[in-house]
Design a protein that fits this description.
213 residues, alpha/beta, Rossmann fold, 2 domains, two-stranded antiparallel sheet, 10 helices, 47% helix, 16% strand, globular
């Protein structure tokens, strides 16, 4: 794995520990709709992209765009109110620092809205580790495949020298848009069992990833 010169990092569930908050906010919404609440384990077993499918599975009727926008905005509003409680995983700064010292270029590529992402990265004190912090232009978390492809073209680097690090199956899809390798960390938004079934390298911590790199 020493051939990599660029690391593309997912944000939610990869660098920040926020699956618990996604569940807490969702349960507030489910209670209001008198729908069954969920556990973190259940969430990790069913969450995926596009997130509309996940909402449907939980019982939300969102086939009309105005309804979907209302539901999505409710979630974002609840998440933002408590976003200050979210912390980095304990091994993130050490990992980012070690890779920076080795001269690797590090980039965040996220399905979070751009301004929110930029503020959050800065608030957690790690902005200086990254050459780019790239989010999307809305709050609907529809995915980041198009961002990955555009970033790959922007970098102009041989894809074999790029590693995409994420925590969901969607990160594999994003990596394929670039043509680069993907490694998943099994402590975020999807279960280890789901990740292992995808056939890409899976680690449990970034310390383990750092040792491999």
């Amino acid at each position: 794995m020493s051939r990599y010169s660029h690391i593309l990092w997912d944000w939610n569930g990869t660098l920040i520990d926020d699956a618990w908050l996604g569940v807490a906010v969702m349960n507030e919404m489910l209670e209001k709709k008198k729908l069954p609440t969920i556990t973190v384990d259940y969430y990790r077993a069913v969450f995926g992209f596009p997130v509309r499918d996940y909402y449907r599975q939980l019982g939300f009727s969102i086939d009309e765009d105005p309804v979907w926008e209302e539901v999505a905005n409710d979630f974002i509003g609840g998440y933002h109110r408590r976003m200050h409680e979210v912390r980095l995983f304990a091994d993130v700064k050490e990992t980012l620092s070690a890779l920076k010292e080795r001269g690797l270029t590090q980039i965040i590529l996220s399905a979070m809205e751009q301004k929110t992402l930029t503020r959050h990265v800065a608030a957690l004190g790690i902005a200086d580790y990254f050459s780019h912090v790239q989010g999307i232009d809305n709050h609907y978390a529809d995915g980041k495949g198009h961002l990955a492809q555009a970033m790959g073209e922007r970098l102009g680097v041989d894809p074999k020298n790029i590693l995409f690090v994420g925590d969901t199956l969607h990160d594999i899809e994003a990596a394929r848009r670039i043509g680069c390798d993907c490694c998943l960390c099994a402590r975020g938004h999807q279960s280890k069992e789901r990740l292992l079934a995808a056939g890409v390298p899976v680690v449990e911590t970034l310390n383990e990833l750092r040792e491999k790199l």
